[in-house]
Specification:
By secondary structure, the protein is an alpha+beta fold. The protein contains four helices and five strands, in the order E-H-E-H-E-E-H-H-E. It has one domain. A five-stranded antiparallel β-sheet has the order 1-3-4-5-2. Strand 3 and strand 4 form a beta hairpin. The two termini are 14 Å apart. The N terminus is likely disordered.
Amino acid sequence: MKNIALTTCLFLIAPATLAHSDVDSFKQEAKAKVKSFAKDLKGTLKGAIKSGGLEQGIQACKVAAPAIASQHEDEQWSIGRISLKNRNPNHTANEWQADILKQFDAKAAQGQNIEKLAAVKVFKDENTTKYHFIKAIPTQKLCLKCHGEQIDDKVATAIDALYPEDKAKGYQVGQVRGAFVLTKTVNH
């Protein structure tokens, strides 16, 4: 498979075989999908916490988040979340995604706005082009109740019950907690 890399906010290599407008169009579509998915996910999480506390919020992350992602997918698009310190083992970053997340961490440590950290990677072969959009997820104050350094015992017990392999703790506000990953597959 021919690997063509193009990332925004990190580095830029202009691929000769892809029209710049194709990549720009993909980025715009991906940004809109991320915004919609993140809004729905955050609204569901906040609603669950309001109605049943953090334990209900943890349950919503386990059950509702995959369903919400599915609602934003179609025959061309897939959507998910990844992290270097994942809670769900299905959200483990692969090698090139982990490299991008490490670059996001370095940029955030230098003071760059996490909300603006995004990358595009394009893989192309003779039959398909796969566009991957990765957008950093910043750690916010609400996130610390389940992802911070000091988690209430009751909440930690609920997390451990649903996620026995959890690694997603110890974050501080302003750190990159992970990323949204969108993939669009276009057949030729």
